[in-house]
Amino acid sequence: MSTIRRKFGEDYQVVNTNRAMSFSAPAKRKRQRFVEKNGRCNVQHGNLGGETSRYISDLFTTLVDLKWRWNMLIFLLTYTVAWLIMASMWWIIAYIRGDLGHGHDESYTPCVANVYNFPSAFLFFIETEATIGYGYRYITEKCPEGIILFLFQSLLGSIVDAFLIGCMFIKMSQPKKRAETLMFSQDAVISQRDGKLCLMFRVGNLRNSHMVSAQIRCKLIKSRQTPEGEFLPLDQRELDVGFGTGADQLFLVSPLTICHEINSNSPFFDLSQRSLMNEQFEIVVILEGIVETTGMTCQARTSYTEDEVLWGHRFLPVMSLEEGFFRVDYSEFHNTFEVPTPPYSVKEQDEKSSLPSPGPVLSPTLLDGHNRRERIFSFDGVHHTEEPGSKLPSKLQRMSSKNGKEVLKTGSTQPTEKASSMSDLPLRVQRLGSLVGQGEAENQLQLKPLKLGSEAHTQSAGELEHHRLVPVPAPVPGPSLNPLPASSGRPEDNLPPKLRRMNADH
Fold first, then answer.
1. Is residue 441 part of a domain?
2. How far is CA 292 from the centre of its chain?
3. Among 331, 352, 373, which residue terminates a domain?
4. What is the CATH number of the domain that holds 103?
5. What digits encode the pLDDT tens for the residues 437-466?
6. DSSP states of 149-210
């Protein structure tokens, strides 16, 4: 372990040192970070030029942001200089009035009693500033300039105390130290959860006091080049960790695993196990919340580089149920174990799943049999794609369609109506039907007997039009209930005897 640290630096962490048989840490060189593991941003501002005066305009924030050693130095120097300046002013007043030569003369009334040198003037200022009031040194009523200096000293001392003490109080009460008790896992993992590839890491709270309104955010820091040729160093992109579902709002009383689903909207949509070795990126994690004890907002940060993202791993569970409470074992907080995970990216998996599967190929025999079946069992004896009435004379087509609609209307209200002879058809259709030649008889309207109960009924032209529009079901093997009459040499032979006699008379 010490050899690895000497080689890769103190910040290098070996994952699962107590379980080295599971897997070994990736031996990759350490590179420059944008955000350190402890949350410190590795950015320095230089060449400000004339913009340095902006720091003086916000002096209070500048003092609070300084390091502790500079704060202590400024604190001590400010009080020391202020005390020396005020003590010198009291000594100057005593020197101008000539009080220094009458220090022990009881008949002489000085401006400040018992001030006859600089140390005595310094002690008088400290007693006045700290309101100690020993009673040995005091201002007399015959020194108006001393009274004015006393008022100025009181006002200046209050301002200096408020500024410096307030600065030190804010410095000490900053919630930065509260972030030290918020933990992040040393590594992030990529594995499947609920059938989806996800990027996950773990957060935890070491204190019993809660983080109120805790919220987590993730940023991907990666340089890229736009299609226009512009290079964007350290470009920042948002990683969705449940903003739409509210999963980013944490109830951080126990360690939680934060999940980022890798989908088409994720920057890692085309990231695979192989491409992960050649990528260069950094994931910055920001956890914000309100400290329950102080009510101040706290922010904890960390980051994960590409060599700290483990493909095909999952975090070990740290929660266990004890007698009367739940126990968190933080010794397993950073440990992971390997799980079966496809090495492909989500983009590659989607492309594979979207490929069309080969369908069954129908043989020509089956196709011919299907077409033949359609031709045989079509209602009017012709192919179903052809219009049966298209071979009739135009005048008969118009008359048959017109009268067929009327028969359909009456047939819906009186389904038991029957047509027993040619006389039930319209008179004009009868005359036209008798004039049609023998060669066109096959293309004319054919009346097929239907067996309903014990009687055979003929169908009108409107009923035939109606049946032509209704698809015919597939044939069922077995004896036919409505056999078609055997075809003969002439079409007249298929007509009923009464209709044949009527045609013969005409």
1. no
2. 28
3. 352
4. 1.10.287.70
5. 444 444 443 434 433 343 434 444 444 444
6. HHHHHHHHHHHHHHHHHHHHHHHHT-TTGGGGGEEE-S-EEEEEETTEEEEEEEEEE-SSS-
